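Sanity check

After download, print the first record. It should look like this:
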Amino acid sequence: MKVRLSAELRRKVEEAARLNNRTLNAEIVSRLEWGFATGGMSLHRPQTSSNDESLRDEVVELKSQLRALRKDVAEIGRRTQHMLPRVKK
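Expected structure tokens:
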């Protein structure tokens, strides 16, 4: 399947894939699956309540915090790699 994306949309999907540690294809598939799971077959989004919007905002914030934590853990791993005992084969 070939899909044409605007440069801006492609950049957004590439960035999301990088942040989620996925390939470009895996990111697109994940987002399509999520869209069908949460929105059904309709292209129109259902009306959302303020509670839905509040939860959505909270999820966005938690995802941002998780990305930051992943970066911190990776950095700690790089900085402490020399402290790990080496296993001889």
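If your output differs, re-run the checksum step. Summary of this record's structure: The chain has three helices and no strands.
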